[in-house]
Amino acid sequence: MTANRVAANRMSRREWSWVVYDVGNSAFVMFATAVLPIYYSTLSEGSTVVEWGLAETIAALIVALLMPFLGSLADYRKNKKKFFIGAAGTGIVACLALGIPSTALPFLAIYIVASVGLNGSMVFYDAFLVDVTEPKNYDSVSSKGYAWGYIGSLIPFLACIALIFAGEAIGISTELGIKLSFIITAAWWLVFTLPLIKNVHQTHFKPTESHEMRKALVGLVATIRRIVSDRRILLFLLAFFCYIDGVHTIIKMATSFGTDLGIDSMQLVLALVVTQVVAFPAALMFGRLARRFNTRSLLIVSVCAYALITLFAAFFLKSAREFWILAIAVGLFQGGIQALSRSYFGRLIPPQRANEYYGFFDIFGKYAAILGTFLVSSFTYLTGNPSWGILSVTLLFILGLVFLVMMPGNREE
């Protein structure tokens, strides 16, 4: 490898500081995905799939309603980091507080706050991509964020799993192990948030104006008009709305789905660990492939793969063996489809309005998550069979594929 190529692959301090926030927040994402639904099932007397799905729906709706307006405000000088700190701080504090409730409803309420803080911080975090690197590096840096997030989150997660499942050997009960896990997860999240706060700064912004609240609202309306009039952005957001629904639904509902099928908790957790391990090299691979192939084409391949994965889950997922196969398959495409969606959108939008546009990027993703989790919960409740809930998501992948194919010529090249 030549010296120039090594230099091209070496990330700057700003890029690394941005990437490692994914390492921090992914610890909570992993813990919430793999453990919290199982823990919640011990607090609740109802269906974990139905109640957990409704909690995810409420959290997603709150974020979807707030983020476009807050994103418009964040596009003014110095606001982006303030809003990021507020959202991330809320999520971290709520993560700590999850160890307090002993009944189902208060636990769900605090989890909703934590989820809103997490996903709100991710809007501002995503928008910082245009500040930390050049457009030619968007795919690579975005992919590294997801990749290192997957592998880095395993460190606190495995420590938490050891406390929960093997803590009795050193005198730590399962309940105490879970409460300590909330502290470990929050601390990890905080530590890997600090580099971004210190080293990443907003370089693209709208000129500072008086009456920023009113200007932000006016700017938000103008952005809606620009999105509607730009066929590429509109079609991409519609595609994203559809296919990311299935991705988020599978991520958020996999453990509760497996729990309702009667799969052993340890099997569920270990399978999701394998997903993270597989997703690490797979996400990096997609970042490299994006240097050689059209990013939209890679997204189309990923959407097709997810449609097949969903069909497999609906028709063949009956035991721990199939759950392991599903976990590996998801790991191969999970990081790629998320990272490339984030970086591809960054190329389509004006960087000085990144927060505003990423607010809409998020609202499309979050409303899709509302629809997906609602579909799974509703079909499971109505039929008594979780497989019908999973099957309902397939249509959204198909619609996402149609919108991607309909997009006009590539602006990214």
If you had to describe this structure to a student in words, what would you say it looks like?
This protein has helices at 3-9, 13-34, 36-43, 48-74, 79-97, 104-127, 129-132, 138-152, 154-166, 174-191, 194-199, 212-229, 231-260, 265-292, 295-316, 320-348, 354-383, 386-391, 394-406. It is mainly alpha-helical. The chain has one domain (8-406): Growth Hormone, Chain: A (Up-down Bundle). The two termini are 25 Å apart. The relative contact order is 0.16. Mean pLDDT is 81; it is low at 1-8.
**CATH class bucket:** Mainly Alpha
Question: What can be said about the biggest beta sheet?
Answer: none
User: How many domains, in number, for the residues?
Assistant: 1
* CATH fold-level topology: Growth Hormone, Chain: A
Helix content: over 70%
Q: DSSP strand (E) fraction?
A: under 5%
Assigned CATH architecture: Up-down Bundle
